[in-house]
Amino acid sequence: MIRDKQGFTLVETMTALMVFGMLLSVALPVLSELKMHHESHVRRTQASHLLEAEMERIQSPTVSVPSQGERKKTIEGTVYKLRWRKKRVESHLTGSYVEVLWVDAVEKERKQSLKSLTYTP
Fold it and tell me: Where does the sequence pass through the membrane (predicted)?
């Protein structure tokens, strides 16, 4: 490089571009994987909220719910399948079981479930 002129030589510019390209080739797969993990976490959180809401719905004394059933709910393009069962366990105890099924961001089927006993006078 000539000292009385300002600027970068072609070799310096090419070296900087190569270093930038190598950093980018490492960062893009990492960012893609982080995005996939974030989407999986969001779907799992939505499934948990649906699960709790469905359990509250079938245990509510004011809502008439069949002893077992199934329904689907779609949130942001993800289809969640909700299933429930209620049965009398003892004379004053009712058992409830709710599960939610969905397909994760990595195309794997996932499932969460809740069980509960409720006192019924």
Answer: 14-34
